[in-house]
## 1
Amino acid sequence: MGKTALLDFEAQSYFGEARGTAPTYRYGIYGIALWSEIPLPLPQPPDGALTEIHLRTASADWFSRVLRGVETQETRSSWYRFARLGDRASYVRWEGIGEFLVSADGKGIVCRQFSDAGSESFQVYLLGQAISFALVKQGFEPLHATTVVVEGEAVAFLGNDGFGKSSLAACFLAAGHRILTDDLLILRDMPAGILAYPGVARIKLFPHMARRFLREATTGVPMNPFSRKMILPLSREHACATPVPLRAIYALGSPRQVFREKGIRIEPLSPREAFFEVVKNTFNRRVVDGERLERQFIETGRLVDTALFRKLTYPRVLDSLPAVREAILSDLGRDFEQERVAV
Amino acid sequence: MSVSFSERVTVAPDVLFRLVGDEAVLLNLKSELYLGLDPVGTRMWTVLNEASSVQAAYDVLLQEYDVEPNRLRQDLDELLGQLLEQGLIEVGPAEVSGGEQRLT
């Protein structure tokens, strides 16, 4: 029965099995063009988009049929499930949010928002985790990074969930800088240098962080049923919508490794250390076929050869964040040329 | 598990290697495990892969580094053990033609 379901699935077009309406919206995100059947809070697609992704919706019955006989893996928390189908499509699902099927070539995403999910929460997972599968399948290497724009250049903060990337970025917002992307960063090596691409104009913060660093009214919605983190939309004043050159990447030290008395430290990373920070902070750890791993290995090596990396450790004390921001700005003001690694 | 100095080591299939500055990173595509080498480890890796035997590699390294012979032997043993455990090298008979032979 499982084999029949897979063969049927392989013979079908994603687009033919959806609601039957053609995508009517065109958007731009991470430098790509997104053709969407549903409205999203995104700008127009960029000229010369890096690639395109088509987004459709489908019913619960459609997903049930497609997944017949497919065994899903679940995490310890069991609210996230994942499966790889026989034709190399990827299925992901978050309880209380929605489910997504990403085509093997990464060009198509079919999605379903669960009835108990808010649109904002659904879009966070659609435009983050789900789209990361499409990006990886198309040869991109998204990083788990929050990025701000300082004097027209991107400064990225690498780190796992809970490392304080967004809180640090909010502190930069409070000083008049803008957010380029919160959580997922796409970098491309261009002739003029590495470009960093804009994400969704929003930031995810705990309420007390939002009250401290965002001057305007902080009305947001919960990110998911299990977190107090809020999704906060950002205005054009606070979000950069165009790609900018990359200035530096700061890998955040784990909060557990920092003791209050050690203060703020910014240290150079050796190329080997930088390489592993990038690999550790990939946005998508589920697509691990040989082709992807080999590409990631090569791309990471190139990034380490050309980008500037720093290790940033600091006490996770709210009142210290402005000092951390000033330390980063001071560090950025230094001449990094002598530290570039010779290839 | 240890490697005899009378044997030769070669890069295992499905292993990627890249120099990053004066260090290196390796990836075993089958096991999905990474290994990082500091500058000395990187040099050891390079010499091991070029030499006709582990003994020949040891001799080259002993000339390059100001180190006690036993210490170098221990360090080389340790590195080889780690490389073997992670499936990054294969072990075979030493080259008998004499002189160093580069891997293609």
## 2
Amino acid sequence: MQILRKITKKDFDSIMNMDKKEIIEKIKKSGLVGRSGSNFPTGVKWESAFNSPGHKVLICNADEGEPGTFKDRFIMEKNPELLLQGMKIGRYVLDAECFIYLRGEYYFLRKNLEKKIKEMKLDIKVVSGAGAYICGEETALMDSIEGKRGLPRAKPPYPTSSGLFGRPTCINNVETLANIPLLLSGKWDPNLRLFSVSGHVRKPGVYELPLGTKLSYVATIAEAESPKAVCLGYSGGIINYEKFKDLTVDDKSFKENNFFIGPGSLIFLNMEIAKIMKNISEFYVHESCGKCLPCREGGFRIMELISKIEGGNGTKKDMEELKDLAQYLETCFCLLGKSYGFMVCSAIDNFGEDFERALKRS
Amino acid sequence: MGEKILLEELRNTQNKFGYLKGSELIKLSKEMDMPLARIYGTATFYSFFRTGKKGRHVIRVCNNLPCIANGSVNVIKFLKKELGIGPGETTKDGKFSIELTSCIGCCKKPPAIMLDEMLYTGLSEKKLKSLFEKIK
């Protein structure tokens, strides 16, 4: 696997001898984009931080919390040196103070990470999260490190101009940072992505596959058991497998059908859509930070309606209210609430007949 | 930046006292020169922090789809049989509490739990029995 490659000392020293601006240009030219699902061009983010005045901060976002996602854990377990080399390069280019925000659930990784940091003579502070999905949102993450409740901030200002404690801050996902030494040492396939495959499959795990792979191929190698639905994490939409099994997993094909690859999580399920949606709604209600009205109140009402429908007591009026609220969640302050609304819309668009059947039961 | 990180201070305090006592939060407020309201606000925001006593050991059962699809309900049934409690409850002897939790990233070996700060995966009945023999 490309992501498990070890960079030779010779190659790494060459990178550290490059001009800082040259490194940024190379990253820009490579086309590397944020692997958390943001798809934001990494080189542009680094350049923006580089050009901002003040003492910079580089934060590795290791708060991987999207259900069905475990690729960052895989990197930190199997090839932590690659991640730390990526951070060392970032520290050099940005002359930045470095942090790793490691989700509390991955506390078991902390000792080994800190040991490797010491071995590599790096100055990186590991901060443990404490069980809040919203802290994976980059602005909430910064508030969390600052000792506050993890509430998202308005953008602008963008973190690269005013971030942690007001300093120019570059926040990158684990997989993104791990790809930096790979792309700078020449031999790099930009098309390879890490996919976390789980659910009703016999071979769950992290698969490194090229973009453009067919969904049915993933189902075959992971040995999916009669999948009905494929949840793209809890934010990229819900694919009706029968209808879209020949869909290729790439940004263009996905976007055309109103799906998003996100962090590359594929949860194959042989389960009723109402039951799937009930769990997704419970997740979002639990993880909502409470800051904005549509997410806090609308999101809760959506959960009530879905529970009612799942329990066989849903009416046509409930469906109308559900559709309305799901669209209303587009006005949420941050991507958590917006994704919640999007998932509900995706379920209704792709599994309309199943919902009709669920209503007829009552 | 040698500044203290509140998240870390709260975790250390909780590990020391079992929960975030009011008196300790007041101490932290003085040490970190932060308003008590801010510290209390942070202490009550995160799932892992508790401002009231709970079981000495917290069992968090993953309650999202990859684990649900692979028998997390059996983990909850086992815990009910073994400890006599369900999610949201604490044993009478104050030793264990059970909570449902969001995905903990163990989808490769479901179903999974978090016990204190460690993850336990692939929890068949056999594995659960052996785990609880060790910790009970």
